[in-house]
Amino acid sequence: MPPPKDLAQFDLNLLRVLDALLVTGGVGPAARRLKLGQPAVSGALARLRQVFNDPLMVRVGNRMTLTPLAEDLRPRVAAIIESIGQAIGQVVAFDPATSARRFRIGATDYACAVLLPEVVSLMNKDAPYATLEIVPCDDTVGDALAVRAVDLVVADRFRTRDLREARVLFTEGFACVARIDHPRLPLQVDLDSYLAEGHALIAPNGVVPGNVDHALSQIGRRRKVVLSVPYFMAAAALVAKSDLILTIPRRVARTLSDDGRLRLFDPPMEVPGFDVVCAMHPRSAGDAPIAWFDKLVRAAARRVR
To answer: What's this model's pTM, rounded to 2 decimal places?
Structure first.
């Protein structure tokens, strides 16, 4: 089939498939996103390759990678799809009570542990047929919003530092946990007792000094980090079976200490807290479903506060 010579010859049904392929980077994920069979998406990809005279996706090792042309197309196609969605949204009212829309949040482990239970609770009540997809939140959150890979991002201020649209949901502080029968920690943990023990660190991107280490450096002290893990639940399980101390966001610490295996105590030095923020792309402000979902997330944050 020769490529179309103009828009009138282009099958616009391919546009949604192209958008899904560019966002997900694979035939299988695109098929799941579109709720289509993989053969149908593979056939559409073959037609798109003819249209653009480019493979669009190539295999590198064990994963598919977008070609330079596909990378260039990704934000442009996302803008077209979003513009169409906004035009339709102005005509078709969004009703959360009947919508089966899938919402996507780029979230940190902290947001999953603290905020998302409240988000799910509100969704079950106000949008019982809608579904929620959580994807990891990394340093490319701005790109994820721009190409509609996610509807919203919920993370800390540092991770969203390049997003001018980020709004503070609430502020979080720190607390410490250790196993309930720790053999050496006194009832009132002072700085020397704290630093005499080994420490566990939540480190999604490897061992990187955080708020606690910066606070200690301000008073000329250091702690000994002997374990780093990317997830709160894994760290809590390891601390409950060891003599390590874990210093983490206070709301997470409270949840983890509820089962009786861990004791909670205040850090023996002042540790500055951090802002939990939510961001969406400026273009999404006119998208009725995303605007509604943004309000729901902020309502969940008020419950957390």
So the answer is: 0.71
